[in-house]
Amino acid sequence: MKKIIFIVWICFFQFSCEDVIEVDLNTVDPKLVIEASINWTKGTSGNEQMVKLSLTAPYFDSEIPPATGAQVQIISATNTVYQFIEDGATGIYKNNTFKPVINRNYELLITYKDEQYRGQEIFQSVASINRVDQNNEGGFSGEDIELKAFYSDLADEKNFYFFEFLSHIPAIPSLSIYEDKFNNGNENFGFYSEENLSSGDIVIIKNYGISERFYNYMYILLQQNSDSGGGPFETQPAIVRGNCVNETNPENFPLGYFRLSEVSEVVYTVQ
Fold this sequence. Notes:
Layout: H1 2-16, E1 32-41, E2 49-55, E3 71-76, E4 81-86, E5 92-95, E6 105-112, E7 115-122, E8 129-138, E9 144-152, E10 160-166, E11 174-179, E12 187-194, E13 202-210, H2 212-227, E14 244-246, E15 255-269
Parallel strand pairs: 1-15
Antiparallel strand pairs: 1-2, 2-5, 3-4, 3-6, 4-5, 6-7, 7-14, 8-9, 9-12, 10-11, 10-13, 13-15
């Protein structure tokens, strides 16, 4: 008799779970997202630059809406104005006359929907990648391929680095940040490990010079990304504010960052 009652209870529970649960997610007005990464790769003129503007979207939306129709310009400390023109209705604004100068201050000005946004940053230099070492017995399994991209830190100054490793395997690049607090003036390296790499694969390694403020900004973002499980019912990461502000309506602050970096790039073929 107990067995029959138990089976009936299980059946009732299964059928009762078929009800659709509608989750009432809070909706807020979309915020402007600023992706203004001005990168100057060593050995190039650095004249072609772009700024990408988009809007935040509800959690379950699959598309990110572009912020179209904005006015975008970057002004140097010598009052040189660089106008960025939108490429169609994409939210991508381009300029091909930019002249980067290391240690010079630049200001980003954006006008979008009658509100003005502003950000300031100094163009950061970077140490060149000197060599890449490969280890074929890395990781916990002893079968991962590990790459170390070495660079020589400049002595007697605070330096911060942002490494990006791109290959055909992961959908998202491997990102990491470094400071010279404990190895000032010494040789250091950016680290990358991937179990699915094989001989002949190409890995693009980029080392960006960054400011201390951007280092702290990325530290929080990377930590949130590693700690978050990504589920919609879990506690969501806190909003991380960048270095851009809304001067017209401060409460409607933007997301994203205005960064200017010299870049050392190496294209490495896995041995």
